Structures are given as C-alpha cells and as structure tokens.
C-alpha cells in the first residue's frame, strides 16, 4: 500500500535562512507526488507536483522539490524563508488507481524574524 | 471568481442533529471530492464523484451521504451528528478522476456539541 511520511512535524527557521521539509514515500508503483500548503484558516493550495518528468520540480513562491527514486524521497526546499511562508505543508501521493490523494500528516513551518 | 466554494464556513450544532454542507465549483471540472481534516490536521478522502456518479467511497459511516445534483455541485449531508464528526471538511475538484491536480475549497469547520 502506498503511504507518505513527513519526517518532521514542526520546523522552525529564521527569515532569510533556507527551508527543508522532508518527505519519504512508500509505493509499489510510480506515483505522482505533490506538496500542498495550508495557511491558517485557509484551504489548500498546490505548491508543486512531480509526474515523472524532470526530477527537480519548481513550484510557486520560490519552492522546489527533488524526486529521488533511490531514496524514495521528495523533499521540499526554499533558499530563503519569508515570514509569509509560515503555514502547514503536506506531502501528498496519488493512490494506485490515480483517483485520489493520500496526504502525509503535515509539517508546521514557523518563520521568525 | 472563487473556483471552489463551500457553505457554510462554520457550522456549530448539537449531537443528533442532521446538517448539510454545500460545495460548488465553477472550473468546469468533471470530478469532485470530499475530504475530512481531523483535529491533528490529518486529511483523508471520504468520497469522490465523477459526472454525478460515485467512484470512491472510503470507510465512512452511513450517516454521511454525498449528493451530486449536477457536475458543478457536490453536497455532503450528515445524519445524527456525533462528537467525533467535529472536523474541517474540504471539497475539491479536478478535471477528471485521473487528473492529479485537485483544487480545494476553503473548508467548513464543523463543531458538534
């Protein structure tokens, strides 16, 4: 069965420093992978997605993620954090049929000035 | 110009009551979904409809009944509400069942007292 593990429940960074949110997946097939962001009391917004094209995926707001099949990882990075990046981040994988999303448990990103 | 909208945004009710949450999308998508986000922010799919037909029905109590009057609407009716139903419910839509990008509504926070 497919699953997603977000390795950190909470990450704290200072404004202007790099961000790394870690995600490992487990799947018997080649899934599509995503990162979604949820700002406080808001809905979910797609940051980026990987669908078996380039392994380095660029998303919105300066975020990017690298798909590493050998490590079954899809870590999210940003070179320089901004206060507005503080939010909940979800790593997501499609189910085997490709008809539904399976969410990780989320990582809360805090950004201090 | 809201792509996926939900009403109401907040819903507070007593145990045992019946309530409905409405969802509408103006993206012209064929597929709509309901997700539940619990108090620990874990998101899980509940239902998926394609062209008004149910295609995913996860392990959800029979008290939950989705209804899709047309492709643009997917409503969620909940009978005999229980304390454990308190959560944030998100509606989403995608171009088709295999389209990996889903667009989420702002969520409905249901509180059962």
Keyphrases for this structure?
heterodimer; A: 113 residues; mainly beta; six-stranded mixed sheet; four-stranded antiparallel sheet; B: 113 residues; seven-stranded mixed sheet; 11 strands; 0% helix; globular
Overview of the structural elements:
The complex is a heterodimer of chains A (113) and B (113). Chain A has 113 residues and is mainly beta. Chain A is globular and about 45 Å long. In chain A, the strands form three sheets. In chain A, strands 2, 5, 6, 10, 11 and 12 form a six-stranded mixed β-sheet that branches. A four-stranded antiparallel β-sheet of chain A has the order 3-9-8-7, with no helix packed on it. In chain A, strands 1-4 form a two-stranded antiparallel ribbon. Chain A has strands spanning 3-6, 10-14, 19-21, 23-26, 33-38, 44-50, 56-58, 64-68, 73-78, 87-94, 101-103, 107-112. Chain A is built from no helices and twelve strands. With 113 residues, chain B is mostly beta strands. Chain B contains no helices and eleven strands. Chain B has strands spanning 4-7, 10-13, 19-25, 31-37, 43-50, 53-57, 64-70, 73-78, 87-94, 103-104, 108-112. In chain B, strands 2, 4, 5, 6, 9, 10 and 11 form a seven-stranded mixed β-sheet that branches. A four-stranded antiparallel β-sheet of chain B has the order 1-3-8-7, with no helix packed on it. In chain B, a hairpin with a 2-residue loop joins strand 7 and strand 8. Chain B is globular, with a radius of gyration of 13 Å. The termini of chain B are far apart. The mean pLDDT of chain B is 91.
Helix count, DSSP H or I runs of 4 or more residues of chain A: 0
Q: Give the low-confidence spans of chain B.
A: none
Mean pLDDT of chain A: 91
Mean pLDDT of chain B: 91
Strand content of chain A: over 45%
Q: Describe the main β-sheet of chain B briefly.
A: 7 strands, mixed
* Helicity level of chain B: under 10%
Care to give the gist of this entry?
Chain A is mostly beta strands and 113 residues long. Chain A contains no helices and twelve strands.
């Amino acid at each position: 069965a497919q699953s997603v593990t977000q390795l950190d429940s909470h990450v704290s960074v200072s404004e202007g420093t790099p961000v790394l949110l870690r995600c490992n997946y487990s799947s018997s097939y080649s899934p599509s992978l995503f990162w979604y962001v949820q700002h406080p009391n808001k809905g979910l917004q797609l940051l980026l997605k990987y669908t078996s094209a380039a392994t380095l995926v660029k998303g919105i707001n300066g975020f990017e993620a690298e798909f590493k099949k050998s490590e079954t990882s899809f870590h999210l990075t940003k070179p320089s954090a901004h206060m507005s990046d503080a939010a909940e981040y979800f790593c997501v994988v499609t189910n085997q049929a490709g008809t539904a999303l399976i969410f990780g448990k989320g990582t809360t990103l805090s950004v201090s000035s | 110009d809201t792509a996926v909208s939900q009403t109401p945004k907040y819903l507070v009710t007593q145990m045992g009551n019946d309530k409905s949450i409405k969802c509408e999308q103006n993206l012209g998508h064929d597929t709509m979904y309901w997700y539940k986000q619990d108090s620990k922010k874990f998101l899980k799919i509940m239902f998926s409809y394609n062209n008004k037909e149910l295609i995913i029905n996860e392990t959800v109590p029979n008290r939950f009944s989705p209804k899709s009057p047309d492709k643009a609407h997917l409503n969620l009716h909940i009978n005999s509400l229980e304390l454990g139903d308190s959560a944030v419910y998100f509606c989403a839509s995608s171009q088709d069942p295999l389209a990996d990008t889903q667009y989420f509504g702002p969520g409905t926070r249901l509180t059962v007292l």
